Amino acid sequence: MYGRYTQDLGTFAKDEAARLRLQEGDTPRPRRPSELLEYSQGRCAPCRVCALQCQRFLISKVGEDWVFLILLGLVMALVSWAMDFAIATCLQAQKWMYGGLDTNVLLQYMAWVTYPTVLITFSAGFTQILAPQAVGSGIPEMKTILRGVVLKEYLTLKTFVAKVIGLTCALGSGMPLGKEGPFVHIASMCAALLSRFLSLFGGFYENEARNIEMLAAACAVGVGCCFAAPIGGVLFSIEVTSTFFAVRNYWRGFFAATFSAFIFRVLAVWNKDEETITALFKTRFRLDFPFDLQELPAFAVIGIASGFGGALFVYLNRKIVQFMRRQKTINRFLMKKRLLFPALVTLIISTLTFPPGFGQFMAGQLTQKDTLVTLFDNQTWAKQGINDEFEYLGILEAWRHPRSNVFVTLVVFILMKFWMSALATTIPVPCGAFMPVFVIGAAFGRLVGESMAAWFPDGIHTDSNIYRIVPGGYAVVGAAALSGAVTHTVSTAVIVFELTGQISHILPVMIAVILANAVAQSLQPSLYDSIIRIKKLPYLPELGWGHHEKYNVRVEDIMVRDIRYVTLNCKYRDLQQVLHSTKMKNLPLVESAESMILLGSIERAQVGALLSSQLSPQRRLMVLRQKVLSEDGHRLSDSSIRFQISTETSSGTPARPALRKPLKPALKRVPSSPPDSPPAGSTDHTGIALKSLFCANAAEPTEMGGPLLALVGRPYPLPCPMAPPQILEWEEQQLDQVVDFSSAKIDPAPFQLVEHTSLHKTHTIFSLLGLDHAFVTSIGRLVGMVSLKELRKAIEGSLTGKGVKVRPPLASFRDSTASATEADTTALRQLWDRHQHHHMPREAGPGGEDDDDTPK
Amino acid sequence: MYGRYTQDLGTFAKDEAARLRLQEGDTPRPRRPSELLEYSQGRCAPCRVCALQCQRFLISKVGEDWVFLILLGLVMALVSWAMDFAIATCLQAQKWMYGGLDTNVLLQYMAWVTYPTVLITFSAGFTQILAPQAVGSGIPEMKTILRGVVLKEYLTLKTFVAKVIGLTCALGSGMPLGKEGPFVHIASMCAALLSRFLSLFGGFYENEARNIEMLAAACAVGVGCCFAAPIGGVLFSIEVTSTFFAVRNYWRGFFAATFSAFIFRVLAVWNKDEETITALFKTRFRLDFPFDLQELPAFAVIGIASGFGGALFVYLNRKIVQFMRRQKTINRFLMKKRLLFPALVTLIISTLTFPPGFGQFMAGQLTQKDTLVTLFDNQTWAKQGINDEFEYLGILEAWRHPRSNVFVTLVVFILMKFWMSALATTIPVPCGAFMPVFVIGAAFGRLVGESMAAWFPDGIHTDSNIYRIVPGGYAVVGAAALSGAVTHTVSTAVIVFELTGQISHILPVMIAVILANAVAQSLQPSLYDSIIRIKKLPYLPELGWGHHEKYNVRVEDIMVRDIRYVTLNCKYRDLQQVLHSTKMKNLPLVESAESMILLGSIERAQVGALLSSQLSPQRRLMVLRQKVLSEDGHRLSDSSIRFQISTETSSGTPARPALRKPLKPALKRVPSSPPDSPPAGSTDHTGIALKSLFCANAAEPTEMGGPLLALVGRPYPLPCPMAPPQILEWEEQQLDQVVDFSSAKIDPAPFQLVEHTSLHKTHTIFSLLGLDHAFVTSIGRLVGMVSLKELRKAIEGSLTGKGVKVRPPLASFRDSTASATEADTTALRQLWDRHQHHHMPREAGPGGEDDDDTPK
Questions:
Q1: For this UniProt entry, which segments traverse the membrane (chains A, B) (predicted)?
Q2: pTM exceeds 0.90 for this model
Q3: Measured between beta carbons, which residues in chain A are less than 8 angstroms from residue B501?
Q4: Same domain (yes/no): A581, A445
């Protein structure tokens, strides 16, 4: 089906192109050098023609999705592998230093503590200086971006470099941090940069919808090449970043993630680390009898406990952030010395894990990877207490302590790592929380498994065969359950299978993950949602687990009824009032105040632009010129009539060519219309009489290259032929004119809801279409409006007040629209104030001037 | 987050309820018996109160999603297990008969052939009689249903019974058929029935959005409990049935599918079939070195070949259906003897698989399950030719033939099974094609694997260790690739892992599946899409793999510009004309023909209802009564004025109380408004003078209980006080009145697009919201319309004409709206015709009467 359709569309496109070419052929066009080549003589000509054709073919192929996805997968696999290599080297260096200094414990301690502190401090400082956006996981921001919000500076090369280097240093320090969240962000940046790079070859990459699709695939690649888990990566990225997932994008994620995981593992084989492609944390559990049916309750217990643990982790993480921000003394101190907090945290954590010190009770010398390998180990450790046959070999040694048993070590490990991870993930470096949580879960599972093994030394099964309990299986279950609980995902189960290379524990894992999710979701938001709330990113919370109240709340219960609107026949003064009285980003345009028939929606910025262009100095000058002209020509005495005429002229085409252009799309700054030099046609008519008048101001428009709006507030410094009172009078007259909407960009089909639409459906539509607001209409008549704010309030209930009240930490991330609108509002507020109090021009004037010097 | 929000909403709802109760409390209400119980004396009272509270608690819990999902999982697991048991018994019986008759080959043949023929014929006949909707896979229909289309009779108990019994018989016959597609359908029916059953306890199950969500989960359960593959089931069902998937429904599928798979496998353990829960087709490949990196090209070859094979299968399957339908002789013959075709096909297939006959060259004696078990076998068969050490044990014996080698057997098996499966899946019994294709794929993979093993007897790897090639791994890869190619899904990879219980071949499987998908998707639609096209189900085709043309086609290129509309101030005559001139299901309502401002959309049925109520005999009687009244009272001579007055009265509220009610939702028949007996108030005023007039007609309105529209065409037989010419005159006058829309159900916010919306975005929006049509507006003005038809045309290009031209086989499945609209159109056409030719009332009258006798 696909093939044939597309073929047909392709044929159609080709036919169309041929037709156009024929039409074009009528008018002779200059041949391009490449075409001329075919006719040129010489030996090299055929070669060159061939090369050119190849080049053209390649360029046409660059536009294909799969080329992009392969490139993305390749780049990300290389990045992932190189980072892993660098991190391993860093960790090796620490171990080497620690091992080399074993003569002096103090020196050992110094080395053990200084190394990570320096790395983390460097990472924090580097990130802070280069791109503060690179801090943290990145998944919350990607979730917001995929919802359609534009986060500034978030997918740039600078951020990419900062994140890669910062993450390498942070993980190289051996702190309990993860690479999975940041990898989602890195892959997205990689996709954005790649598409910008490839767009040099063709324009296919300029489509926004396509870019969003590619970003979704990139998220999958990020997780996929981090764990060498293509399927789990795709599913995890879908669960974590999407609300509604387009199944037609599915293959993109799978394709890119598989390719990326493949290259990532092949690199390991080529580097002789592995003999062939296998799982990252391969386990060797027995296949014939993986677990007993009677062990399932224990797995369920792991699931439920992990649910509580996951919720506690999210809560703890948030409380730490909130505490740090609320304590003003600490806050002020930390703000001043930005690098002190990371250094302090690293110092505490590395001190506690110092192997000869407290670290001996919590396997402090193991790296994250080694910890996981040992936890997934096939043997049973607890048996050691019963019959001493079992030897702790190699890295397993770390779990043994001569004066305690393995249970104590595990409990201490879990408790210490728990708060350490929650604390470490608040450090302002690029870091994720998935891997630390995964390790804690594995340790918890191991603890339960070892307990079970100690309780039933010969297994539960009482039939002929003896099947001993495998604590490693419990560790796998625990890891999946806790990470699932923290992230509110089910696909951690799949990640676990792909990581361990064994799927035999599928049912225990699924049961535990689902129970953990059920518990955690009813207690706390997911870690990523929690961060979204802390950072106050513009995101719509999910509806909870099937609660029926949502089906009964309707739009009419939550909508704002008292909204400001713009009528088709309103005056500029009305626009001004509307702008002053509301902060809505989009204003409804209705036919008239009586009929209230909704015609469309107009952006606030557009209204501002209309207003400011009406009152702009350029226009004033134009009017003045017209006035002089008409005085020259007809000597009309009535100035009001003159103004009327001049307005009509100026609203015609030649007067404002800049504003006639299609305006820039949404979420951009108010287009600062290029200063229109007086049109050539009219300049001819001005004659010599005007030249003396204009020569003083000729350079003025060029100087005023800044935002047009800023100019409105600055009439006085202008060397203007009108005196301020005259200007005011003129502006008053202008404001009484009827608005000409022809130059404004109106959204002709804003999304409409009906009063009876349920909250559930509204939420679905908002999520599906990434809406920001919707108008509520009743048979064409505007009756209200619902925006994300109202919807969020309705979903969160009365919680909004109690919610996370921290200062948005990512001030620079803020939506570009918001800032534009704010600047806008300020300028317009001044305008309004000036006109409200135009009997006191002295006071308002300087205020407007002050603000103008900082137009940002 | 979820927990707290929902809790708050819950609290809010409780507060609201408390408030309402307080308000209610002001007016004393009768206490229910249960409340009175608390005050009644006696020993049993506390018990009964407790029991009642428990009951109330249980009923409140029934509304929870998880209760529903557990019930669904449980029921489906039981169904799946019981069916498997029955199928196994059937197959055992055939084997037993075949084995018992080994003295006489003819008798053996008779038994071998008759048994499946009888079963298939019974299955076909039973399904045909009980519910023809149960025929086939069910996935295409579920895809359509999940898009929001209502397929009649598709989720009923009758269909459920027919499908379960029909499927058991069909699979018990040993034909190459699968149970996975039908299981998706069975699970959906189960969910629909369960929700209808549970709605007896509470009203939560009446919400349509919720039911759709539950159906999506049910699809996952269907696949999950069929293969004991919860993750694969969820993913497969998403890929196969959804266009846009709501991630918030994800857990439902996982939860139910896991529970279902768990119970399904636990039943096997309890039945002592298995020792513990393991995979369905457990493999025992080595873990340390699953495959060599240098084997990857072979896996890629399997993938590409499977892609071509899958496309060929879909093509073959469609061609067989088309051939059967096009050949009129065959068709007429088969239509008459509906059971002959299934019997014939079964006869051919079972003859060819007869083990002592041709079946010996294609392992004919093996059941589907045994075939898979042998194909996934750990040993290498081809070695047998080289060194004779290997013994074919047990069922493996079937693959050996004394006079040929295993390669020949495999090739014959693949070729024969290929067309057999394609043919068998066209039999009108409940059956799927997944499993047969899966088996063919496994055989193909095995063939490649055995070839590789014969080529490299000691493995490719030339290092110290010798790792032999595992042909079983190739079989797994082949199975995933071919089934992925036929269904256009990637998740067959996950299903394969869950089926075999091993994930070690993840990279080969993923590579092969993706390549197979890439090839198959560029050649043919998926099997399910092919069936959708054959059955002409109302479904929107997918956009192809990232073709950029779609981003450049715009709505203005494909929209219908010349559309009929209804204006706010139009007359009934205009309505009539609009209905006559267009077949659109939804008519736009615009303010006026000049402004063209879109106010809403009105259903065709509603327009018809408006028109017929205006011309209804009831209203005429009312008018007559009014006339008599006014003649009695005022003795006005001018009848036209009288009519005018009476109309005004009748358009008031008390005259048409039935139509004032909120009309029934879309996709329903035109509401046959209950015959309104003259309102009590007005009857009082009629007085004695009217009684003689009305006594003859008093019973008339009660008789006219049928569809209102039908009555319009039957004015003559009515014992009416008006003569036909008078009626015509009256109706003409009525038609000239301005339409009163107050009683019509108008969709106040139909979906609007802009001319510049791209085809890609339009497709997305249509898929996301399940739209049927959208109006194209330009600043509030209606300029065109896009419906599914235009969109489909635009996507399919010029293919529509060449498309599958078969008669829709599921005539009874047709959308209920369509039929309602057709009936509607017929009635209105008559009305129109009569008014166009009202100078010939004699001719039109009987025609109208004829049609009325068959109002359906």
A1: 66-88, 109-131, 183-202, 214-238, 250-270, 296-318, 339-358, 406-427, 434-456
A2: no
A3: 287, 503-504, 506
A4: no
